[in-house]
Amino acid sequence: MDGQLAGLARVVSDGHTICYLQDVLVRPQFQGRGIGRRLVERVLEPFAHVRQKVLLTDDEPGQAAFYAALGFAQVGAGGGGAGLRSFVRFD
């Protein structure tokens, strides 16, 4: 990777009741290597005690399968035409 940023993940949480996975980004040339999965697992570690984890993401093919593999379930019927999907996971 030669010092390049391959990806990032960001969480916003109150530390007690909800954890919002705000960003999971992996450069296209690094996708398919498990980096996204490891980023999500690592960024959620400090919030293992927080039951409700949610995220909102673009309605791109493959993202539903990616988040489902991480234990998230899609909720609702999408973003009402806004090209968004919402997911939730209860630990």
TrEMBL record:
Gene3D superfamilies: 3.40.630.30. Pfam families: Acetyltransf_7. The keyword Transferase applies. InterPro entries: Acetyltransferase_Butenolide, Acyl_CoA_acyltransferase, GNAT_dom. It comes from the Bacteria. The keyword RNA-binding does not apply. Residues 1-91 form the N-acetyltransferase domain. Transmembrane segments: none annotated. This is Acetyltransferase (GNAT) family protein. It comes from Arthrobacter saudimassiliensis. The lineage of its organism: Bacteria, Bacillati, Actinomycetota, Actinomycetes, Micrococcales.
